[in-house]
Design a protein that fits this description.
Elements lengths: L1 H4 L7 H67 L4 H16 L8 H28 L10 H44 L2 H60 L14 H39 L9 H18 L3 E8 L2 H27 L5 E6 L2 E7 L3 H18 L14 E8 L10 H16 L4 E4 L6 E3 L5
Parallel strand pairs: 4-5
Antiparallel strand pairs: 1-3, 1-4, 2-3, 5-6
Length: about 475
């Protein structure tokens, strides 16, 4: 029971949408930092890879330098002098080059082949130089006779052998040179890997950077989509619901100033359609209710107003008397009553007919209403008798009002030749005024009895006059027409 009595927590549609946006924003932020950290890790890894492969590129540069050294040594081999010192220097340079480690990317066998070919070239070049010197050396001294011929023949054979050896050495040099150039070509073929490596690393770094850009662009699109979604929900859900609430508020007023909003959401459209039907039904019901109220007012007026004269009827007079009596009793204020009777009305009605009698009563009621004050209550008491309640009026005030009534009746100039009182319609008035005591009852019947007794005295003493209850010889004749 206590749980049921608790007020259910509610949240507005704007707060609901705002809360949803906050939650989505938190998810968005968490995802953003997660992916950005991942992209940063990729970028850092790419940078580390690039840094790790820098020594390899340095090795390639070292290979280029060593290749140049090989070509330089080859030139020195070709241009080397025949002195022993020059040969020793060349062998020392080659040994130093052999001790230099090749780059990691260069295949060692190609490097060893190039150095070995260079060593062979140096040795063959030295051998060829010696053979060439032997062939071009100074001529031997002249000897006489047969010995000279034999020596000459021997020299010719040696020269032929040296020439053949020189040719073989040169062929070997050509082969060594071919091996040297092949080895250098193999080393040269490895150089494009450096450019490919640099390009691959640059592409990796560029891809990581592009990943960051695309990720940022994706989150921008996501943010734009969330904003668009919020705008759509606000336009198609929040605004129609607020319009429906405003429309419901105006239904109770009966004034149709607002119209139901439109929405593409099916449920909202169904609600709007149902409310439109309800509004039509309520409009018809309101019209019918207004008619009933109008009829009720009309019937109520008919129940309180005399249908012939237009003044209040007896029922309304009794209600007003009780209310004014209690008010005067509580405040200890005076309350006066004037009872009016049309003199010889039965004779007037018999002689001139009921229609003339009705017209006479209407004009008497109108004259009495004109003479009354704005706070007074004028009513038809019954037949040709009328009553006028005067709140707060003492005897003096009531007498003055009674005099005005006589004057207004006289001003009507209603002919009544058959009246033994006067040639025109006249009235008799009985006046009573008192301050209700605590023991005077609550219905005001005492005031009616006093006023009725005064009216009786006025009628019995000649009519067309006013009698004040409680005053001796207080009959005041009405003024006679000139």
């Amino acid at each position: 029971m206590a749980k049921d009595e608790k007020k259910e927590a509610c949240i507005g549609i704007n707060a609901f949408l705002s809360s949803g946006i906050v939650v989505l924003g938190l998810i968005f932020s968490a995802s953003f930092f997660f992916y950005m950290n991942m992209a940063r890790d990729i970028s850092v890894a790419s940078t580390r890879i690039y840094g790790a492969y820098l020594p390899l590129t340095e090795a390639l540069d070292q290979a280029d330098k060593q290749k140049k050294d090989l070509w330089r040594l080859l030139g020195e081999v070709v241009l080397a002098e025949s002195s022993a010192q020059s040969r020793e220097d060349l062998q020392a340079a080659i040994a130093q080059l052999r001790r230099t480690p090749p780059g990691a990317i260069v295949q060692r066998q190609h490097w060893e082949g190039a150095v070995s070919a260079l060593e062979r070239l140096a040795a063959l070049h030295a051998q060829a130089h010696d053979l060439q010197v032997g062939l071009n050396g100074p001529p031997a001294p002249q000897k006489a006779g047969l010995r000279h011929d034999e020596d000459q023949a021997a020299d010719g054979s040696a020269a032929s052998y040296a020439a053949g050896s020189l040719a073989a050495v040169r062929l070997a040099m050509d082969a060594a040179l071919t091996d040297f150039t092949s080895a250098l070509a193999s080393i040269e073929a490895r150089h494009p890997l450096a450019d490919e490596m640099h390009g691959q690393l640059r592409r990796t770094a560029a891809l990581a950077h592009e990943f960051e850009n695309r990720l940022l662009l994706g989150f921008l699109f996501l943010g734009a989509g969330m904003t668009s979604l919020y705008a759509i929900l606000r336009l198609q859900l929040a605004r129609p619901l607020r319009g429906i609430m405003a429309y419901l508020d105006q239904l109770g007023t009966g004034v149709k100033k607002l119209f139901l909003p439109r929405s593409r959401i099916v449920e909202i459209r169904n609600i709007a359609s149902a409310l439109d039907n309800l509004s039509t039904y309520l409009s018809k019901a309101t019209i019918q209710s207004n008619k009933l109220v109008s009829e009720h007012d009309r019937f109520q007026k008919m129940s309180l107003v005399d249908g012939l004269t237009g003044v209040r009827n007896r029922r309304s007079f009794d209600d007003s008397l009780r209310g004014l009596w209690r008010f005067a009793q509580e405040r200890q204020q005076p309350l006066a009553l004037i009872m009016l009777d049309v003199d010889k009305f039965k004779i007037y009605n018999d002689n001139y007919g009921h229609q003339a009698g009705d017209e006479c009563l209407k004009r008497v009621a109108a004259a009495m209403s004109r003479a009354a004050r704005s706070t007074d209550v004028c009513a038809r008491y019954g037949g040709e008798e009328f009553a006028l309640l005067l709140p707060g009026a003492d005897t003096h005030t009531a007498r003055a009002v009674a005099l005005r009534i006589h004057n207004e009746i006289e001003r009507e100039q209603l002919p009544h030749p058959a009246s033994p009182v006067n040639g025109f319609v006249t009235v008799s008035l009985g006046v009573a005024s008192l301050v209700p005591g605590k023991d005077a009852g609550s219905d005001g019947k005492l005031l009616v009895r006093n006023a009725d007794a005064a009216l009786y005295d006025a009628k019995s003493t000649g009519r067309n006059r006013t009698h004040i209850y409680g005053e001796e010889m207080a009959c005041t004749p009405a003024p006679q027409p000139a």
